[in-house]
Amino acid sequence: MVIGYWDLGIGIFYAIINTMEEKLQSQNSEKREGFFLFVWEIIKIAALALIIILPIRYFIAQPFFVKGASMESAFENGDYLIINEVSYRFSEPQRGDVVVFRFPEDPKQFFIKRIIGLPNETVEIRNNKVKIFDEKNPDGSILDESSYLDSNQITEGSLRIKIYENEYFVLGDNRLHSSDSRRWGTLNKDFIIGKTFIRAWPIKEAKYFTPVAYP
């Protein structure tokens, strides 16, 4: 699932331009002076908004909207998400986190997937099941994904992959319609932008996301 973000600075710029055009159409020559005073006030408000919001936008949280079906039914096409960019500066990504990252094969694109395998683990997919091998489970343990996968989901593939330091194995929730680590391999942490924090749109589906609790 490729996702994109709406640039706040560009949005404010176009809002100012549109407002100016509307005012120009509605003002006659006798009121031009008042109009330009109005424009100056708009510019000051926009500048203040940029000073306050841009640091948040670029260093703390980013808005993204979902395109595609690879994370259904947890995330639908058109969902508007706020991504937490701060957490992974102080802690490591956890299994079950839904992360936004730059696609390793084309960093201009943004993907959203769920972290399944962690560094120094081995992930095996067989018979529609995901098995995790680590120090605690050297013989492997089948991952219970019932808390976020629909009951009819099928995890296609037959593979066994070792995850090295600073790497993660990611999958889309809609397994039959997802380009993920089954196709292009593990994800390096350097490509991760952040994890999903809030779904702001649609309003009726607004939600704050908490960590997945595996059985």
Biggest sheet features: 6 strands, antiparallel, barrel
Widest beta sheet: strand line-up: 1-2-3-12-4-5
Strand content: 25-35%
Rounded to the nearest angstrom, the distance between the terminal CA atoms is: 27 Å
- Architecture per CATH nomenclature, i.e. the level-2 architecture of the largest domain: Ribbon
Q: What's the alpha carbon Rg, rounded to whole Å?
A: 22 Å
Number of individual domains: 2
Assign the CATH superfamily of the largest domain: Umud Fragment, subunit A
**Could you tell me the number of beta strands?**
13
Number of distinct helices: 4
Give the helices and strands as they follow along the chain.
EHHEEHEEEEEEEHEEE
Contiguous low-pLDDT stretches (5 residues minimum) are 5-16
What is the overall pLDDT average? 78
Structural class: alpha+beta
Question: What is CATH's topology name of the largest domain?
Answer: Umud Fragment, subunit A
Helix content: 25-40%
Explain what the structure shows:
The protein is α+β, with helices and mostly antiparallel strands and 215 residues long. The chain has two domains: 2-59; 61-208, Umud Fragment, subunit A, CATH 2.10.109.10. Helix content is 26%, strand content 31%. The protein has helices at residues 8-26, 32-59, 87-90, 181-184, and strands at residues 2-4, 61-66, 80-84, 98-103, 106-117, 122-126, 129-133, 141-142, 159-162, 167-171, 187-188, 192-201, 207-208. The chain has a six-stranded antiparallel barrel. Strand 12 and strand 13 (207-208) form a beta hairpin. Helix 1 runs antiparallel to helix 2 (32-59). Residues 5-16 have low confidence and may be disordered.
